[in-house]
Give the backbone structure.
Amino acid sequence: MFAFAKPRVKPEILFTCAPEDEGVIAAPIPAKAYVPDWFRKLPAIDPEVEAVKNSGLTVKRCMPFLDAMTTGWILPLAADLRLEIAEDGAKVEAGWDFDRTLVSTHGRHQVAGHPMAPRPPMKFHNYWTITTPPGWSCLFVDPLNRPNGIFAVVAGVVDTDTYRSPIHFPFFATGADGFHVISKGSPLVQVIPFRRSDACLTADIRAQRPAEAAVARQIVRKTLSDQGWYRRLARADR
């Protein structure tokens, strides 16, 4: 009797909201859809800099930079928000017209000694519940390589396979004193799912062996000899 292997099911992340919020609040989208305009417009090679002794390459050709920016998902701001920042961020007032809370405030004592002090720790309210397969968690970070100049989200990890409830996101106001409007759909946080077992590697810390050092030198030489080597031959498919 023939035995056939079952097709491998790709792990899936699930975003759910209250029925009355569907189609009203901004929905999560893949991080690769939130590449900022400045990066889209940036040429891979700057012709004004390119010369015999300068390749003119820009960060547009840096795959690690791009891959960090486009990994995972973006949770956006649910609705339009107004922030009034004063005293170098030590005083922040938030306002909105939406019928759900968008921002609340933590006590300053909760982050006593934090480098962001005396800025008050605040919190964006999120109305999406995130569910991952068993053994998977999510890393929540400020959108990578795209600072907005107004706020910075505090990073955190949540075991979203068991904690199936909306997660709110602490942040500090980092913008200049004045009035700021953050539009509905603006990226708040980058969601990077990961398998917990893959994040618990043991470490072997030592000097390189000769063969390892030779491989490292060869890779450096390959990247210098061919501008597209990493993108074509070292980078995994995505």
